[in-house]
Structure formats: structure tokens, C-alpha cells
Amino acid sequence: MVEECQILFDHWEKIPSFEYVDVPKDKYYSHPVKSEIVKLLKEGIEEKSPDGKSKVRHALNVIEIKELLERRKNIDMSPTNLYFHLDILQEMGLIKIVATLQKGPHGRNKVKYFGRVARNLFVSSEAISISNYTKQFNEFQKLANILKLQLPKDYSNLPQKLLETKQQFYRVLGNWLVDYEELIEREKLDLGSLYEFLKVINAINPEYNNLFHEVFSLLKQEISGL
What we know:
With 226 residues, this protein is of the alpha+beta class. 57% of the residues lie in helices and 15% in strands. The chain folds into two domains: 2-121, Winged helix-like DNA-binding domain superfamily/Winged helix DNA-binding domain (Arc Repressor Mutant, subunit A, Orthogonal Bundle), CATH 1.10.10; 125-222, no CATH class.
């Protein structure tokens, strides 16, 4: 039993330092408790681990999550509703079951402990952008056809290429920040804000110019001032 409980403490050191996760925006932001649960699992609970050391435990069961939400976030929610949100967070790949331990008289009760999939999570809703991009590109294609503008042959592939390019560079930027994780934490800098800043700078990435060079050149002929 002692060894099983130690898993709850060791989990934090065994998971990746960084993970970039695409999530459906309508699911993740449908209720504020989801993001608060993800935050709580990073904050954790400080207590003495089975090896006798004082550590922060980042694997929590639903009752602990409920109590922390009430005490730290002023959110009151039943365990049943919490399980609903925990299931969705698992489906989105943000959290996982770290361990299921036997509790209660004779160990008859099975208690699940939940934890993050990475110490630092960069959550993006880019996953739904492909449909948005496709809609935007399709609408412009209709206009181009009416105006008899000659679009590039690979035009229909551009939405997917754009999305893949953005995701690739977001991961590169995130990994670069994680390389300086200790410095950032020591100086008490906001990792999330730094990541968002780099995403803004990434907007002028020359790779995007390469993707849309032909389309931009076409528009430049049609629109004065570009």
C-alpha cells in the first residue's frame, strides 16, 4: 500500500515537462471548472510522502478536487458533476488516471487519482480551426471564381498546410521555453504569457509568406495599397 501511495508523488517527475494539446474550444471552455481542475492538479497538495519527505502531491481524487475547488476557487460542485468534467478532460488528453487505489474497510473502495499529462500544458483550440480556415478559403474561392481570378493549383490544400505549419512552430516555441523552464520559474515569469507572446511574433514567420505568396501576389494586382 505504501508503494502504491508513492506513485501519487512520483507521478509529477515522470510526466513530460511540456505538452502542446489541441482541444475543441466548445468543450474545454464550456464550463470554467475544467480549466480550474487543470490548474489545481498543477498546484497540488503539500504533505509528507511515504518516503518521509515533504512533497507536493499532484495526483488527486475527486473528493480532494472538490474540497480544493471550494476552498481555493470558491466553486461548489457535486462529485457526480466533477466526474463528468474529469471524463471530458481525459478525452481531450489533458489529464489521466495516475492510479486506482484500494481504500476503506478491507480495501473494498476503489479510488481513482487524477493527474496532468505534463507539468506544463499549452492548450490551444487550433483543432477546430481547420473547419474555420476551410470555410474562409472556400468563400474566397467563390469570390475568385466570380471575378475570374486564377488561384494556385494547390489552393484547396492551403488550409491544412497552414494549420500544420502553425502547430509545428507552436510546438517548437513551447519546447524552447521548456529549455529555460528552471530560469523562468526562478524569476517567477509567466510561462503561459511568454508562450502567447511568441505566438504573436510567429505570425510574421516567413513560412506563412511562402504558403500564400501566390495568393498575395494575385490580391496585390487586384487591390491597390497592398
